[in-house]
Amino acid sequence: QVQFVESGGGLVQTGGSLTLSCTASGRIFENLHMGWFRQAPGKEREFLGAIHQNGASTYYSQPVKGRFILSRDNAKNTVYLQMNNLIPEDSAVYLCAGRLRLTTPYEYWGQGTQVTVSS
User: Fold this and answer.
1) Which of 32, 51, 71, 74 has the most beta carbons within 10 angstroms of its beta carbon?
2) What is the pLDDT of residues 57-91, one digit of tens each?
3) Residue 118 near residue 88, CB atoms below 8 Å
C-alpha cells in the first residue's frame, strides 16, 4: 500500500506561483506513474498532467500546458507540481494520484491541498 500527502497549497495573487508537493509512504513510489488533478466546488475532477515512473516523460492537459510543470524525485518519494502565472480559475483542491500501469485507472489518491488564487 501507499499513501500520499500533498502540501504547498495556499493563497496566491493572480500571476503568482506555487509549487505543490506530494510525498508518498511505502516502497513502491518509484514504480508508480503519477498524476495531478484538481477539483473546484461544483465541478468534476480535472486531469492536469502526468509523469512517467522514471520521470522521463510528462504530459499536460491543454488548460495548464505551458504554465504548470511536473517533476519527481524518486529518492525523496515526492512528485512536484510547479504552477506559474496562476489565475482565479486555477482555484481548487489539488490532488496527486498514482498507478502502477498506464493502462489502468489511478488507484492511489492523496487527500488534496487547497489552492486559492485571488484576483
Assistant:
1) 32
2) 999 999 999 999 999 999 999 999 999 999 999 99
3) yes
Tell me the one-letter amino acid at 88.
Answer: P
Q: H/E/C letters for each residue in the chain?
A: CCCEEEECCEEEECCCCEEEEEEECCCCHHHCEEEEEEECCCCCCEEEEEECCCCCCEEECCCCCCCEEEEEEHHHCEEEEEECCCCHHHCEEEEEEEECCCCCCCCEECCCEEEEEEC
7-32 burial, b at 16+ Cβ within 10 Å, e below that, comes to ebbeebeeeeebebbbbbeeeebeeb
